[in-house]
């Protein structure tokens, strides 16, 4: 079993032995506005902490005396081959982390045979990111009240090579991230949201109180969309649709019945505080979907054993939110690559120590909840 040895610039990044080391580097590179936006959760941040805690509480039941001389972490998501079941979740405004912004993240996803989910609120236009990702990207949609504009974004994403539509369903309103309210989070003037509006239009909605993002989002996002409207969305794009932000068996069944895939998520604890952790929500969702759709998960994934536990319980892949942002802030493309590589190496070792030589060997019997 060989572990990758990435030749990355910067002693500090090279010396990072885990994602916590990269997080420390990333945090140190950010100003207060960006750091608080990335790190914050809603209200008391119970769910933010619980996402990590739930992984830690689950214990492994490793099997022994299995030939693990070759461990294969490869899998696929919606037919896209992946070097491991680890992708990048959508997050807004990568330009707060690094001047190369989403281009760096896309290049890293491509270089590591992963997949990047591009946020509606990227600082870089869809087409530019699509060229860098070379087919290794999904597009995340926030449905705007302006449906024609939403539709145009879907067309652009498809033309740019997006392979799936990730439709975020847990944010009709933005959760209240109190730290961003206190310090009036705002997008610096050199950054825009080119898929959504011109910088001038963004500036016009800036006010003198609270999180500028929350103020802006309030008027922009469609809050009327229901299950009935999915038929409309289906007509707007031929791409497979993944509903991101599902936490219950009930909604997972509806998603499968509507022909959608399921992304288990509480938005990294940024929306409804005290919502269940993604990892704890996973088993009932896997049961309810019963193989009809692919199931993904995000929220608190920072260790190879987290990846292993989620996949063993039925997730097709897991996605990194903040962890990718810390890597981006630490060293741009190389930082994101190093993050993916370290986690994949941890996952491979965890598989070996659990007696699993390939993804199919990861079964629920390995996990005691
Ligand atoms: C700074 C930040 C921005 C985010 N922006 C988006 C977004 O634009 N669209 C979206 O669907 N989710 C967004 N999310 C949620 C992530 O996709 C993901 O659900 C969450 O970060 C996973 O938790 P983790 O950070 O613990 O990995 C964002 C999360 C963070 C931390
Ligand atoms: C632009 C925002 C709506 C992005 C987001 O989802 C978040 O900050 O959690």
TrEMBL record:
Read off the PANTHER family from this record: 2-HYDROXYACID OXIDASE 1, S -2-HYDROXY-ACID OXIDASE-RELATED
Short name of one Pfam family: FMN_dh
Q: Where is the FMN hydroxy acid dehydrogenase domain?
A: 11-369
Q: Print the keywords alphabetically.
A: Flavoprotein, FMN, Oxidoreductase
User: What is the required cofactor set for this protein?
Assistant: FMN
The entry's protein name is 2-hydroxy-acid oxidase
Transmembrane regions listed in the UniProt entry: none
Q: Which family does it belong to?
A: Belongs to the FMN-dependent alpha-hydroxy acid dehydrogenase family.
* Keyword Lipid metabolism included in the entry's annotation: no
- Which species is this UniProt entry from? Deinococcus actinosclerus
Q: Which residues form a coiled coil?
A: none
Instruction: Output the lineage of the source organism.
Output: Bacteria, Thermotogati, Deinococcota, Deinococci, Deinococcales
Give the InterPro entries listed for this entry.
Aldolase_TIM, Alpha-hydoxy_acid_DH_FMN, FMN-dep_DH, FMN_HAD, FMN_hydac_DH_AS
């Amino acid at each position: 079993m060989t572990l990758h040895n990435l030749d990355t610039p910067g002693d500090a990044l090279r010396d990072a032995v885990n994602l916590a080391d990269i997080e420390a580097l990333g945090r140190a590179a950010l100003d207060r506005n960006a750091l608080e936006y990335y790190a914050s959760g809603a209200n008391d941040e119970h769910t933010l902490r619980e996402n990590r805690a739930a992984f830690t509480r689950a214990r492994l039941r490793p099997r022994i005396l299995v030939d693990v001389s070759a461990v294969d972490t490869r899998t696929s998501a919606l037919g896209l081959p992946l070097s491991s079941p680890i992708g990048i979740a959508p997050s807004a405004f990568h330009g707060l982390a690094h001047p190369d912004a989403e281009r760096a993240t896309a290049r890293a996803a491509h270089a590591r045979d992963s997949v990047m989910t591009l946020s509606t609120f990227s600082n870089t236009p869809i087409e530019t990111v699509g060229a860098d990702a070379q087919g290794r990207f999904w597009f995340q949609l926030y449905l705007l009240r302006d449906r024609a504009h939403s539709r145009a974004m879907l067309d652009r994403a498809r033309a740019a090579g997006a392979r799936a539509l990730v439709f975020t369903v847990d944010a009709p309103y933005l959760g209240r991230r109190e730290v961003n309210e206190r310090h009036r989070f705002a997008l610096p003037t050199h950054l825009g949201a080119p898929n959504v509006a011109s910088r001038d239009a963004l500036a016009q909605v800036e006010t003198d109180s609270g999180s500028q993002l929350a103020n802006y989002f309030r008027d922009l996002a469609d809050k009327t969309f229901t299950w009935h409207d999915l038929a409309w969305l289906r007509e707007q794009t031929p791409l497979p649709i993944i509903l991101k932000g599902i936490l219950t068996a009930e909604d997972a069944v509806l998603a499968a019945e509507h022909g959608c895939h399921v992304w288990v998520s509480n938005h990294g604890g940024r929306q409804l505080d005290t919502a269940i952790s993604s990892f704890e929500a996973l088993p009932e969702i896997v049961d309810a979907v019963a193989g009809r759709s692919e199931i993904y998960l995000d929220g608190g994934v920072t260790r190879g054993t987290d990846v292993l536990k989620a996949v063993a319980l039925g997730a097709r892949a897991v996605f990194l939110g903040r962890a990718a942002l810390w890597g981006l802030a630490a060293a741009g493309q190389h930082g994101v690559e190093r993050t993916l590589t370290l986690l994949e190496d941890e996952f491979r070792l965890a598989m070996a120590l659990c007696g699993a030589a390939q993804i199919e060997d990861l079964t629920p019997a390995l996990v005691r909840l």
